[in-house]
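S., here's the first fold you wanted:
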Amino acid sequence: MVEPYEIKDDTGIVLEVLAADDEPQGDLQGGPQGETVGETVGDTGGDAPSDIVPMAVPDAQAQAAVSIASRGSWGARYPDGDLTLTGPAVEVFVHHSVTAHLSADASIAAEAEQMRALESVGQSRFGTGISYNVVIFPSGRAYQGVSWNRRGTHTGGRNSTSRSICFAGNYETTTPTSAQISTAAAIYREGKDRWWTRDAPLRGHRDVSQTACPGRHLYARIDDIRTGSGSTPPSPGEPDGLVVDGFWGSATTRRLQQELGTTVDGVVSSQSVYWRDANPGLTTGWQWVSDALGSRVIAALQARIGMDSGQRDGKIGPQTIRALQRHLGTPVDGVISRESQAVMALQRRLNAGRV
């Protein structure tokens, strides 16, 4: 079994401890029964890797009250937990991440960066991606971590039968914002009879483990979360707009296909695998092959940005990327990096209905 991961302060106090359950891989009890679960209510159609299916929204009122940005919106890159869980959770635990503590007016890009940092911790320690189910920032915005029906590594020995609500930052030394408490209350209420049983208790991680988690200031507010109604702010990218995150995946491709009048399937077909690793900002929906034939949407884009007819081969590469960057007025280097300025400019244009 992988050893637990402890985060301590300068005096040796364990502020948070992450641990996996000592069980084999495979289907297991402990997640929502009878519904397709994955990216959450308020899925924003983001573009980083994700292989999960959007969950059904029970009614419009619930969708309005609880808005959680998808894994794709922040750029998830690693596995979505290690097990598919069935049956509702029987406990809910409040955690704090003890990572960078952002301000309440932090940008969506800064929050997405912190989500990827959290994911890297879980991946490096356990190989299963981000540890927590949902993460709430001081802004009150909430982001899906490990999906509700997948097992994380948040509460050792209880990961299979519980779910986690994590506050980003250190709440041993900092007070949670009212927006965070409101969001957590809305999520806890929404999860009853959906992600956990109606009578599933809400507890602090410290109640079942040798840790100060979720920090004394947040622990003091658990009753407010348990009894509050609350609401969540709109997810990044709502309503109906692309998340401007600089990752070009299926959502961006679909909008581009709509704009250019090609088949709308979110797929950029038959692209040379030679250019894949050099362009990490190209994420979901890109088909990388050794003998590329090209894609209609890329050929249409090449025409739109003014490339000569002899250059319109439907294939992404340095020549096409440079032409796109010049067209968009961003730095020209022939590469689509993570959080690419060119992709952000493209996403803004697509949100405005133009290329």
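And the second, which I think is the more interesting of the pair:
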Amino acid sequence: MKKNETQIAIKKEKYVKSESDKIVKANINRYKRKKQVKVQLHPNLPRNILSWNQEPIYIYFLFKIFQSYDNEDYNQHRYFGYADAGIGRINQIYLDKINQTIDLNLQIYSQGYEDYKQLIQIFKTRQDILYYNLANVLEQYQLWTDEHLNYILNLFSDKNIFNKSLQEKIDLAYPEFEQAAKNWANQAFPNELFEIELGTMNFNQARPILIKKIFSHGLMMLLGGEVYDIYQRLIEYNLKESLSSFLDGGEYNGRLQLEKIIILIKGIMNNHFNDIVFDDEIFTLDGISIPTKKTIKTYYYNDEEKTITQQPSLHFILITFYNFEPNWIKYLIETRQQFSQLRKEIEYPGIKEASKKQFYKNFEYICKQEYFLEKFDYINKFENNN
């Protein structure tokens, strides 16, 4: 990855807001230019997906499939989300001040297409081995999806067990489940960067559905600063629909995303999202792409015993861990320091020494970086690499 691909232009003008806000706004404007919203009606999704203009297709369990993973096509539709596809929306973005997390409340209307024949046709016509591999994986996933959904339908046909009263019980247990999941994650993974997806079985849809996404304090610090500051920016720029996209692939890395979706689909077929490891990139709010290795694990909440285990039940937890090579964390911090220095040079032309106010602001910034390095053990990783 070339460094000039991660840089953004900063205009040399008088700054009213902080430098970080200016950088965020530059990236948000770039995001808005690329994002083309075309909301489809739900839940009756159109059958002929080939008639769509290269827009991504969501298939069962909300896998987003790009019709083309060429860099330009991928980047044009990188932020295509649930609302754009007409399969759901984000009801609310919420700042959990106690757990220091940012939460997204989801309303999912559909889990996506369950017939992949046309997608398979698209990819088999491409003269590329990875597209051909994706077509083969989709053929396997079609069989798996049909079998999986038939199993659920047969299971739900027993109205003595799966009925309205059981759905009400599941819904009533959800708030306790959510709090238990947060407490468990904070205690079990205090030094990890992670996001959590919470879901339950829904008998009206006869499908598992996602209800909430939770982004940890450490992950938000890496994305762009303190949790409260990020929350304010997401509200100000109306980015609740796009937060996940920042963490789900950098710019112009379509090939990596093609490899990733093959791994993910194989993962759900082979072991239901348990210990899936793959390479990815994140795109920070200040416009920097850095690679990461992600690991997905699946856990379940036992409502009767009030415990979280890996024994399947009606409440499930998908937790994604982010691991970064120390040199990329170092690169991220140094780049942000360069941004800070550039602001100083623009704001105080001809002045060699920063003002006392600026000195304390830079000192506070460096302290936050040191806190991040120490908390997530990157200082030791730096030393071990040297």
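Why I say that: The chain has one domain: 27-326. Residues 27-326 form one domain.

Talk tomorrow,
H.
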